[in-house]
Specification:
The protein has a seven-stranded mixed β-sheet with strand order 11-12-16-17-15-14-13. A five-stranded parallel β-sheet has the order 2-1-3-4-5, with helices on both faces. It has four domains: 194 residues, inorganic pyrophosphatase (n-terminal core) (Alpha-Beta Complex); 71 residues, no CATH class; 110 residues, Roll (Diaminopimelate Epimerase, Chain A, domain 1); 87 residues, OB fold (Dihydrolipoamide Acetyltransferase, E2P). By secondary structure, it is an alpha/beta fold. 41% of the residues lie in helices and 19% in strands. The protein contains 16 helices and 17 strands. The longest helix has 32 residues. The chain binds manganese (II) ion. Manganese (II) ion binds next to loops.
């Protein structure tokens, strides 16, 4: 069986399914309201990649429909989600309709402020409703009463509203906006399957065919020259788009996505890259400090003097290091924390654990999230009680298998596959959550071929790979990702070992 067939067989959900916007809660109401609206519209987004991409999609489609539209992206200090104060300041700019993207499902105060001021308030979002849904119109697949697909990103939901609007007008789908839906789907770690695979795959093809000037500039500044896939979206473009919001103000990210001026894009990419390097150093420091303090808890909650913008990334790194869910919070009178699960915690929902803990203790100010990630805030004096209850809950929810890292292998190889077979795997891109980069167990005799100062070239079953440190003798099975190395016009298959 060819490599791609093996993978297709083990990932039956990896079949693109065209999304149906109309099965999403309140889609028709929202589309009608927007089309008949006259007056200024403000799109209210978020400071992360998903919220920014969603805002650009909504802005561009409304602009094409001839609407007067502006965008409001909150800064990190303003916090996630729309509030009453922001509604009032938006009202003063002459807006009479607010459309939220990637937030707003339970923004009750903002919704009633809008009502008082005579502003139409339409929510589009993808977050789990925590509390009472706020507005009269809420386009959120998590509120749909049918069995339609629910795992869209915020930008995916925005794209579906955009395509509902064009469909109502009898116009073609705004497929050129799919690149942003694809980027957000991968970066927001939404499962890449069925409807999301459709959006992510088609958006990726758009991006390859005609990349946005700014996205090209970001890949350039990072020295990435291959055709982008899930790795480039999730590990290069995503962090660069996210970093501005994390470090304070998302407007540079918004600008780089919007600009068509290569000069300006290159300058912005340079600036963002510097910010990204600073952020990486801050993350490394926080991760080291937490790992030093770790005492073997099932669900550790670290609090320290770290910038709020990096606690989520730090939590993710620590979770992978200890294979357990982790919360990392910024110290203060009110602790603001982010939580992440490890990839091996497959049956554990961090959102469910936090919800349970909140039901029992009621100590949280606010919280929200998904299965793999959450955000919360609480008073410093309540930290200890919350922590100990959370530890009990995690002990009962997390099973022994969940804390053992497993490498899921897509098949066994005893000889090098043909170059074409590896190239063909590109049809499964973008790789991401639930659709990881394929890994094969390569079996054979290990040979050392050459070495340099910092590298050793090995070969196993006809597949060459580099290692930084010598491998123990007698190794005969190595899990590896495959890629093609092109040198002087000759292509050959190479491996990239995946240890742990
Ligand atoms: Mn989102």
């Amino acid at each position: 069986m060819k490599l791609i067939e093996k993978i297709r067989k083990s990932r039956p959900f990896l079949v693109p399914k065209k999304p149906d916007p109309w099965v999403i809660n309140d889609m028709e109401k929202a589309a009608e309201k927007i089309l008949s609206h006259t007056g200024k519209i403000t799109v209210f987004g978020d400071y992360d990649c998903d919220g920014i991409c969603a805002a650009v999609i909504m802005e561009e489609i409304l602009h094409r429909l001839g609407k007067n539209v502006s965008v409001y992206l909150p800064t990190r200090d303003e916090g996630y989600g729309i509030n009453a104060g922001q509604v009032k300041s938006i009202a003063r700019q002459g807006t009479n309709m607010i459309i939220t993207v990637d937030n707003g499902t339970t923004a009750n105060e903002a919704a009633s402020a809008a009502k008082k001021l005579g502003i139409e308030f339409i929510v589009t979002d993808h977050h789990e409703p925590v509390g009472i849904p706020a507005a009269e119109i809420i386009v959120n697949p998590k509120l749909s009463k049918n069995d339609g697909f629910r795992e869209y990103s915020g930008a995916g939901v925005a794209y579906l509203l955009a395509s509902a609007l064009t469909e109502m007008l009898g116009e073609p789908e705004p497929a050129d906006l799919l690149d942003l839906a694809s980027l957000a789907t991968v970066v927001d770690v939404c499962p890449i399957r069925e409807e999301n695979f459709y959006l992510a795959r088609n958006g990726l093809l758009k991006m390859r065919e005609k990349p946005r000037t700014g996205i090209e500039a970001v890949l350039d500044v990072k020295g990435y020259s291959s055709s982008p896939g899930g790795y480039a979206l999730g590990w290069i473009v995503g962090p660069m788009v996210n970093v501005c919001g994390r470090m304070g103000d998302p407007s540079m990210s918004y600008e780089i996505i919007k600009t068509s001026d290569p000069q300006k894009a290159a300058e912005l990419a340079e600036k963002i890259n510097r910010l990204n390097n600073e952020r990486q150093e801050a993350v490394n420091r926080a991760v080291e400090e937490c790992l030093e303090r770790y005492k073997g808890e099932t669900f550790p909650f670290f609090v320290g003097n770290w910038p709020h913008g990096i606690v989520g990334i730090a939590a993710g790194r620590i979770a992978e290091a200890i294979n357990r869910p982790v919360l990392v919070g910024q110290a203060g009178r009110i602790i603001k924390a982010s939580g992440r699960t490890a990839r091996s915690n497959t049956r554990f929902s961090i959102f469910e654990a936090i919800s349970k803990c909140q039901q029992r203790t009621g100590l949280l100010h606010r919280f929200g999230g998904h299965r793999d990630a959450c955000g919360l805030s609480l008073k410093a004096e309540n930290l200890e009680s919350f922590r100990s209850e959370l530890e009990k809950i995690a002990d009962s929810m997390l099973s022994a298998e969940d804390i053992i890292p497993v490498i899921e292998v897509d098949g066994v190889l005893t000889r090098a596959p043909a170059v074409e077979e590896i190239e063909e795997l590109d049809e499964l891109e973008p790789f991401g959550n639930e659709n990881p980069q394929p890994v094969f167990m390569v079996e054979g005799n290990l040979h050392k071929k050459r070495n340099g100062d910092t590298w050793i070239l090995y070969e196993i079953a006809g597949i060459e790979f580099f290692a930084n440190t010598p491998l123990p003798e007698g190794f005969s099975r190595i899990p590896m990702e495959l890629y093609i190395n092109e040198f002087n016009g000759t292509k050959k298959p190479m491996g990239r070992p995946r240890f742990g």
